[in-house]
Specification:
mainly alpha; 6 helices
């Protein structure tokens, strides 16, 4: 409850106060230009870094590497892009830190460790989630006992060309 109060009241009030202070120091129009500029730069960076993360994710999946950290990096880019689109000084600083590759790559493993620890704590309270190795589903556990249960489908591949009438 306190986190929601902080998120929806204290942070926006602090952002407004900071924007007013910046506006007093550099001027109203310059502050508006700064807000628009950070939104444009943030959207472009989020797009570029998001595409990089998607390509890295595809490469790691093709190599058989666990995609956990790359998925978290993708989420960080998404959240960072959303923060950069919203006007404010603190949200811009935090958004840029989530999109910038060095800080994002440093934060992703920490978030993964915290999420894993949180899942382990919730499993001790009666809630259990398993993110282990993939296993065969129910269709693969029970092999066919007799051939009467098997349906053979044969596909006829012929090269039919439409007939054209000549006049």
């Amino acid at each position: 409850m306190f986190r929601l109060f902080l998120l929806f009241t204290i942070i926006p009030a602090t952002e407004l106060w900071l924007l007013f202070k910046v506006g007093e120091n550099i001027g109203l129009l310059e502050t508006i230009y700064l807000i628009i500029l950070t939104g444009i730069i943030g959207a472009a960076m989020a797009k570029r870094e998001g595409l990089k993360v998607i390509l890295e994710l595809q490469n790691s999946l093709q190599k058989g590497i666990s995609p956990g950290t790359k998925i978290i990096e993708g989420l960080l880019v998404l959240v960072g892009g959303l923060l950069l689109i919203t006007p404010g000084i603190l949200t811009d600083i935090f958004g840029f830190s989530l999109i910038f590759p060095l800080t994002r790559k440093a934060l992703a493993p920490l978030i993964q460790i915290a999420a894993t620890k949180n899942l382990k704590n919730t499993s001790s309270n009666g809630f259990h989630m398993n993110f282990g190795q993939m296993r065969a589903g129910p269709g693969f556990k029970h092999p066919v006992q007799n051939e009467q249960d098997v349906l053979n489908v044969e596909v006829e591949t012929t090269n039919h060309q439409p007939e054209v009438e000549e006049k």
